[in-house]
Amino acid sequence: MQRKFRTASLALAGTMAGALILTACGGSGDTAGAALDPNADLTKQTLTISNWAGYYPEDQTAAVEAAIGTPLTITNHATNEEIMAKLTAGGDSGIDVAFVSGQFAQALNEAGLIEPINPAFVPNLSNLYPEAQQLAYDPGNKFSVPYAWGTTGICYRSDLVDAPTSWNDILEPTDANKGKVTALATERWLMLPAQKALGFSANTTDEAEMQQVKEKLIAAKPGLLAYDDTTFFSRLVSGEATMVVAWDGWCNYGSAEDPNIKFVIPKEGSDLWADTMVVLKTSKNKEAALAYINYILDPVNHAWVAENILYKVPNGPAMKAVTGLTADYPNMGMTPTDLLKGESLVDLGEAGPSYTKIATEVTSS
Amino acid sequence: MSTSTKTRTNGGRGASRRRALRARAIFAGPGLLYITAFMSIPLILIFVYSFFTRGRFGGVVWEFTSQNYSRLFESVYVNVFVSSIAIAGTTTLLALLLGYPTAYAITRLSPKWRTIALVLVVLPFWTNFLIRTYAWIILLNSEGPVNSGLLSLGIIGAPLGLLYTPGAVIVGLLYAYLPLVVLPIYASLERADRQLLEAASNLGANRFRAFFDVTLPLSLPGAMIGAIFVFVPSLGNFVVPELLGGGKTVMVGNLIRDQFLEARDWPFGAVIALSVVALLVILFAIQAAIARRINGKAVTRA
Amino acid sequence: MPKIGWLRLPLTLTYLFLYTPIVVLVIMSFNASKTPFVWKGFSTRWYTELFQDDLIRQGFINTMIVAVSATILATILGTLLAIGISRYFRSAILEAYALAPAIIPDLALAIGLLAFFSLMGVTLSLVSVLLSHVVFGMAFVAAVVIARMGQTDSSLEEASRDLGGNALTTFFKITLPSLAPGIIAGALLVFTLSLDEFVVAYFTNGPATPTLPIVIYSMVRFGVTPEINALAALLLLVSFTFVISAQRITRLTDSV
Questions:
Q1: Domains of chain A, with CATH numbers?
Q2: Res B85 pLDDT > 90
């Protein structure tokens, strides 16, 4: 008996000692509140950035290092939710700048995880369209800087189907198109088509409305090929799908491979989303992070981004430089006024989990 | 292990007890401590979490609630469990149908070929699981070899929608866990087969009767282990339903993943995960009980 | 030995089922054409492109760091554990406890570890992945070494002690060498496991340092590309080599 007790307390002590050691190793110093140094030597800092794959020019690492002197490492995340989970898990994620959609930047800010953007360090903020400086999730760009923006619509093969006019063309496809349409998988954009088709807000938290949205989406599931965030344009190219719910820039990748692929915004309206850059409070390289953001906002660099990723950037001078793209990619020619017709997505606060539950109910039906 | 009856020249019984204790501490101590710290405590932790409320951004707020457990019984989640069990069950059945004869065939090979055959069965299991699932995306794609083959043979007129169906998920799961079914069945067949068949044939039974009355029951414990090794991981798998199911097949694994990485509802995710662990424990207990009964009834070896 | 007869059918089916996708994958990796299913001639260009891909290189380095360290730690802990349990405790319950990490569903272990690290304030990084891989790697090593101990004879150790060797000498000169095949095989298996491990790494890794399986996961979600085929073929080769080596080492010395 005594032996067992000793072994047990030994085990307990050992575990606690181990845990304490780990905490000591793992916890990082609190860098919040340290003032930014305008004369910081950027070559001595390093930058780690998390962005979507293919959402930046391939030469960005080299170009940034040449421009601001800081070595850059880029890692990828596939969805907003994925990077959010890592950033909110506590501790220092090792990420200095994260690319997240606006509503998620809002959530990160409320969680106290991101650093306010100091305009003194980012003079190129003035290049942003006035409309892009007052977006609903962060008016005044206090904690986030928009990188790309756009809307969601239907991307389709004009040689295989007539131009769709309504979200119901995907939610209630004709027999010819059954099993040949896809919807976006991530929550907010999964709900969007049904919300708009029913005339509701994309940010609604009304339970009765969301119940109707759920029922419409469940009814739509049998007609779908898949819920697909990532391979849908190749489905269009191969002809497996005739119409897909898609972000406007993503549809351009399809148009690049097959000029018959076109983009349309359904008549019921759509959203206005923005992908933003945020600086993490735990970053030890904040000056370099802000210098990076400033670099991106330079019209030449931001235009290079737009040319490479075929998404619109909220940068006036930059967009002027890429007007040539509009011929092949009409949605690149959308003006801020056009975009503002879409409803800006914001964080849902406490209602967030209810969306997840509805998404589960829909996809598992 | 043989124990020496010679008395030690240093110490005597008290000293040798202390030595034994020290030896235990030195050898098993670190490992057991490590497992406790990095397996038991995490599992206990999420068990504790399951009784509290989700934090806004993940983690936990220390407000006690039993709501997470009652939520498990809401129809949406029950449905997911039911369809997961259906898919995992079908996969297990197919695995047994294919795996049992395979294991039996291997026992029939000459010893040299037996090892090679076993290694060949197990080898795919040790390769990257994502790659093995990805291989099926290639195969089942509408432009892939399966469809092209069927098209060129004129069996079908247009490519079949093989991918993004529950069937594709089952094939993917089967592919992932089939090797795991063969080993335990082979092990129990190998131990049981020869001696008892000999005994049975000495007593005049023909081969069929020998198999059904003797071999099959004796290999049941092994088959059940194999079945558990396929069933439980299939339930907890989220990669295969996501990659091969087109997001349309939601299994328990997806639920858990979504709660942790999307909804950031850790307590609820913990409840679901723990229910899978509980299922594992229950299944093992059932298997152990049946194994004891069968081995008790078996002809004891001389 | 009775003939194998009709059992040949399920046996062949199983092998066909298990190996056809692998064969297709390897063939495709040498396909010069970018569109996957049209054969345009033999080419190794995807392999060269693979080595130039930054993200894959990052992933590979990170995975190597974790796999090598995890193997070392897991082998040491697992071997000690195996000896301690099968020689000094001889308890079936403890043996089950030692092997439990290998049997617990990896998703449950992954989220438990995530919660644990989060609570302890441990930064998610390669270190947290390493710590996680060690816990079930150790169980695999222990399993292999325990099996090996069942095959070896402890009388050599008895003899060594009777001849005056102290515990330490006995351990290093007699015990370890006789267990060596099991230890090496266990180490090779842990290395392979860690190399390929996705689920636990996915939850316990920091976003800045992806391991190779995590990189592959993001790539695979975007669809089929020839680069992935090449990567897949290479990883298959590595895994096969390690496992076959582990098998041959334990087999070769069965007669010892």
A1: 42-150+273-334 (3.40.190.10), 152-269+346-363 (3.40.190.10)
A2: yes
